[in-house]
Amino acid sequence: MKALVTLFTPSSRRTVGVVTARPRPETLVPVAAATFAEIVAGIPDDALGAPTPCPDYDVAGLLGHLIHRAPQLIGAAAKEEVSAGEQAPADPATWRTTLVPLVDRLAGAWSRPEAWEGSTRIEGPMEMPASTIGGIVLAELVLHGWDLARATGQEPTWPGPLLETTHQDMAAMAPMGRKMGAFGPEVPVADDAPALDRLLGTVGRDPSWTP
């Protein structure tokens, strides 16, 4: 998933005629960040050239994307625009000491309820609901966490409420995301498939992908 900027309105999740309240999104960010940090810790030093399910990036390129994007997402939580400069693959010598503190700051920034209120922006003049950017934060941590885990032979797990919320938000974004090239073509999965598989299929990932 490339960086996606579009509009959606979070809503309750309807299941078999029953409206189930969504978790407060700021409570999900530390959970997503903790799992992401575990995945990062498990990346071998010699895996930077490995392919990932994200077709634009190998491991080094995906880490570089995250290092580039995180300051902008941190700034968006405070309603501040941050210029991130040019994106580049991760530096083998410094990527861990750069990325890990950024993920901590990202989790702290979006764990505040006020980060999700009002409007904000990532780059450029267009403002959007802060909840849109918050949804992107969750998706970056979960989806790119899965990309990195699958590329490096890890099998993390995520809590169901986090996956269901992220899936709901990405499903709302999907039509525009595909039009913008941020999502690949939907990968069909069964309606009763695990939440992770449904999320992956929605954004164009093959849940069975292997290097």
Total strands: 4
**Helix coverage percent of residues?**
40-55%
Radius of gyration, rounded?
16 Å
- The SSE order reads EEHHHEEHHH
The proportion of residues in beta strands is under 5%
- Overall 3D shape: globular
Order the strands across the largest sheet as they lie in space. Answer: 1-2
Tell me the number of helical segments per DSSP (H or I, 4 or more residues long). Answer: 6
**In whole angstroms, how far apart are the ends?**
17 Å
Largest β-sheet summary: 2 strands, antiparallel
Structural class estimated from helices and strands: mainly alpha
Assembly state: single chain
**Spans of at least 5 consecutive residues with low confidence:** 1-19
List the helices and strands and how they pair.
Elements: E1 13-15, E2 18-20, H1 25-41, H2 59-77, H3 95-110, E3 119-120, E4 128-129, H4 130-151, H5 160-180, H6 195-202
Antiparallel strand pairs: 1-2, 3-4
Helix pairs in contact: 1-3, 1-4, 2-3, 2-4, 4-5, 5-6
What does it look like?
- The protein is mostly helical.
- Helices cover 49% and strands 5% of the residues.
- The chain is built from 6 helices and 4 strands, in the order ββαααββααα.
- A two-stranded antiparallel sheet has the order 1-2. Strands 3-4 form a two-stranded antiparallel ribbon.
- The model is unreliable at 1-19 (pLDDT under 50).
